[in-house]
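2024-03-11 09:14:02 INFO queue: dequeued item Anthranilate phosphoribosyltransferase, len=331
2024-03-11 09:14:02 INFO validating residues
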Amino acid sequence: MTSVALLPDPATPLSFETAEAAFADILDGSVPDAAVAAFLTELTLREETAIEIAAAARALRQRMRTIRAPAGAIDVCGTGGDGAHSLNISTAVAIVVAACGVPVAKHGNRAASSRAGAADTLEALGLDLDRAAATAEETLEGLGIAFLFAQTHHPALGRLAPVRRAIGRRTIFNIIGPLCNPAQVRRQLIGVARTDYIGTVGEALRLLGTDSAMIVSGDEGLDELSIAGGSRAVRIGACGEGEAGVRPEEAGLACHTLDALRGGDAAFNAAALTALLEGAAGAYRDAVLLNAAAALIVAGEAGDFAAGAARAADAIDSGAARLLLRQWIGF
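2024-03-11 09:14:37 INFO prediction written
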């Protein structure tokens, strides 16, 4: 008879060891669904600490299917859940940054709160997700890009999907997803849909030994740097330390309304991304340049947002990003 694990009382903050053990039991299926739902809900209502986030991430990391990655590889990923229904910004950023010569292990999933997630849009562009998964190490080494489909690399999360749907709101698993890249990258640009949480996520990354990271949130509650106005960013590690505001003007970019970034289904978003790589100007391009600049700063390839945006623009305008996508699809 399988023993049933008991979860600690989440009413007060947990130690690292207690939290890690609790999430190990949850991920291993040792806890009844009702108890898992109550535990996760209470953590969310109380608001998770950096220690709890780091401990949960470590438990999930120990259960994920990993791949090898070149030195200096980076990920650009958001928590989702901002409700903006925008075009796929981090997906485009991944392609552009990889075209700048920085290996990008793009972690992503299908749509949750939007109509088209990274997996949906890449599939609409012609990327065979099964083949992309099978050749991820090869494309990351040879082309400098790979897509790491969360459903493939995190089997431990599969059994929790019904519980998370039943809860009907975000849980700690939405936060730790971007912290658990299967390529085990140590450099990350992470978008969080709550400005007041970026410091907490930053501290969790520090506890996990991240080399260089920027955790960002748009003032409107976007899980990315906003092209519409202000954002907050926390830097840790090699790219600097501390929190500061970020505006598009720092990258030499204009502000645009969020409506100008509104996306659609996978086909719509794929067409927009294709147009972007073919040189289309406007809000989408500027949003991608701003966030690509942040990624290049994290990677140590740009000293500031203006230099990063200029380098990202060259990767688009030279045709390098468009060529990279074509090679990746045809790999």
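2024-03-11 09:14:37 INFO annotate: The chain has a mean pLDDT of 95.
2024-03-11 09:14:38 INFO item closed
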